[in-house]
Task: structure prediction
Amino acid sequence: MDKIKVKICRGTTCFVMGGDVIKSISDTVKEKYGDKVEIETVRCLKMCQSANAFSAAPYVYIDGTIISSANVEKVVNVLESKLNK
Result:
């Protein structure tokens, strides 16, 4: 099975809106899923380009799925769903 790719946005808006959440997501995913996932922090996922998108930061990309207002629970739910396919 290929690893699930998780990209966590570290752009300015995502960092300001959820800097503490970003670290929690990364730590939880590494601890819970280990080598089943590949975690990468990226400079920007370019999701904040529209004015309305700012309030939905931080963003996380998981194998084709974009999670807005990302938190640990949302990320874990998407990962569980992808791992159980």
Observations:
- The mean pLDDT is 88.
